[in-house]
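Tip: read the tokens left to right.
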């Protein structure tokens, strides 16, 4: 088979699969997954999902949004004009919630309480550390139940590399997966960057994504940016 279909896929971009069955569960995220799965029996109407970039926050938030019929909005896009309709379905995901305007976030939390709606806020840091100035908002954020996504262990990191490659229609043998998992930072974001770099370079050179090519990239002979 020629490389043309993969070239076309590269041009159109690669969508990650956010279905429940595609979520990889392990010690680093099982607590967060349990929280998502136990809705609507949450310990509070609003909870926070915390983790570093690429740790799976969006995937878990998407799983919950499908289950709860929730709308999804970014913290930066959340404004006074959005509040009347934000909770129309009784559930809302606010991604990167730490970037939301203090006053708008405060009103949203109060409105959710009044309407008995469910809120899922995602962020990289716990709500108690967000730079907010409204005292009542600070106390509300400190009371939020928090589910934290941790850095992946070796088995999870390898599984994530395989999943990311599969999402890009890229087949990697065990030697490539093993090489990548021991030559990158132990994080989901690093795994994503590594798979993208390997896929792009394989396409550019018209070569298979082998361990040798991975070694060239991560020894610095080729810039991972392509």
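Filled-in amino acids:
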């Amino acid at each position: 088979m020629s490389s043309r279909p993969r070239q076309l896929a590269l041009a159109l971009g690669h969508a990650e699969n956010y279905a429940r069955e595609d979520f990889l569960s392990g010690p680093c995220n099982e607590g967060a997954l349990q929280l998502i799965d136990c809705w609507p029996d949450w310990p509070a109407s609003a909870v926070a999902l915390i983790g570093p970039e690429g740790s799976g926050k969006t995937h878990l938030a998407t799983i919950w949004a499908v289950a709860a019929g929730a709308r999804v909005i970014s913290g930066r896009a959340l404004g006074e004009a959005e509040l009347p309709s934000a909770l129309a379905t009784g559930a809302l995901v606010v991604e990167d919630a730490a970037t939301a305007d203090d006053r708008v976030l405060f009103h949203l939390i109060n409105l959710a309480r009044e309407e008995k709606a469910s809120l899922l806020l995602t962020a990289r840091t716990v709500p108690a550390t967000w730079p907010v100035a409204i005292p009542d908002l600070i106390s509300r954020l400190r009371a939020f139940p928090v589910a934290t996504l941790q850095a992946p262990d070796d088995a999870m990191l390898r599984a994530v590399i395989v999943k990311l490659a599969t999402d890009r229609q890229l087949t990697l043998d065990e030697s490539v997966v093993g090489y990548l998992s021991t030559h990158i930072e132990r994080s989901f974001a690093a795994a994503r960057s590594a798979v993208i770099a390997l896929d792009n370079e394989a396409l550019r050179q018209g070569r298979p994504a082998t361990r040798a090519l991975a070694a060239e990239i991560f020894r610095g002979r080729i810039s991972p940016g392509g």
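Residues 1-13, 221-226 have pLDDT under 50 and may be disordered. DSSP finds ten helices and five strands in the chain.
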